[in-house]
C-alpha cells in the first residue's frame, strides 16, 4: 500500500517522512542484493547453463569472482531505487490530493479507499518506471560483467588468417626449428568501456532499453499486489481473532493487541509480494533478457555503423518460449521471491516507524481554567 494512505497531510512532516523513508530502505537493499544478482544470472541469456539452485549460483560467483561480485551494481541500483522512492511517494501524494479536490472526477468507484489506493499506487509506479529504468539497466550490465563467470562482454575473437595459423609440422629439419605464433587469451572488456560503446552505438535509447518490458512487468505485479494485500489482510485479521478466541480466560492474550497492525501489515504484505512475483515472472524474465542483451559492435567492423534494431517484447517472449520452453519464464522466481517477500513485509514495518516519527506533535492545550481571573471565577460561582 502506498505510504501515506489514510494519513492527514496536515499532520505529517513530509521532509522527515521522505528522508527517513528513503534512508531506511537502503539496508534491506544491501542485505538482499545477492538475491538480485542470482536472479539476473539465472534469467540472462548465456551459452553456459546456470544452476537453478540459489546457493549453487552464490557459491559459484563467490569462488570465481569473489564475495564482492555478489554486490556488483549495488551502488547504481540503490541510488536509482532510493531516488525514485521519493518521486513515487510525491507522485502518490499529489495524485491523491488532486483526486480528492476534484471529487474523485465523478467516478463512484474511486470513492472506495481500496480501489483508490490501488489505482493511485499503480499510476505512481508507472510514472516512476521511466526514471528507474536507466539505473536498473546499467546496474544489470555491471552485475553480469563482474558477477557472471562467463560474461559475454568481451571483444570478438579475431578471424583466423594465414598469419595467425600455426605452421603445420612436416618431415625434415625445418619442423624442429619452426616457430609457432604465441596465442594470447582474449581479455574481457572493462565494463566502463562496454557501457561507453553501447551508449555510442544506441544513444539515449540504450539507457531506456526495456522500458516497455519494465511496464509489462510492473503493471501485472501491482495489479496482483493490491487485491492480494486487501484480501490477505482480512484473512490475517480473522486468524488473529480466531487465535484469541481459543484463549478466552487468558489475561495476556497472544498475540498482544499492540502488535495487531504490525502482524497484519507484514504478513499481508509478504503474501501480496509473493502473489505479485508469481504473476509477473514471465514479464520480468523478458525484461531481464532485453536489458542484459549484449549488442556490442566493435569499432572498425562492417556492422559498427549499421543501426541496431530495437529488441521487441513479443519477439523475445516467442524466442524464449520456442527455444527454452514455458518453464524458463519462471527462472529466478525463487530468488526474486526471497528478495520481494521480506521486502514486502519490511516496507510496512518501515512505514509504520516513519509515520510515527513524522507526525507533527501539536503543543498541549493551555489550562484555560487557571488563566481565568479570580474575579471572573467568583462571578461564575
UniProtKB/TrEMBL annotation:
Cellular localization per UniProt: Mitochondrion membrane
Any one GO cellular component localisation term in the record: mitochondrial membrane
Tagged with keyword Ribonucleoprotein: no
TM helices/strands, residue ranges: 17-35, 69-90, 115-135, 206-226, 262-279
Entry-linked Gene3D superfamilies: Mitochondrial carrier domain
Membrane topology label: Multi-pass membrane protein
Keyword annotations from UniProtKB, A to Z: Membrane, Mitochondrion, Repeat, Transmembrane, Transmembrane helix, Transport
GO biological process: transmembrane transport
Family membership: Belongs to the mitochondrial carrier (TC 2.A.29) family.
Protein name: Mitochondrial carrier protein
Species name: Entomortierella parvispora
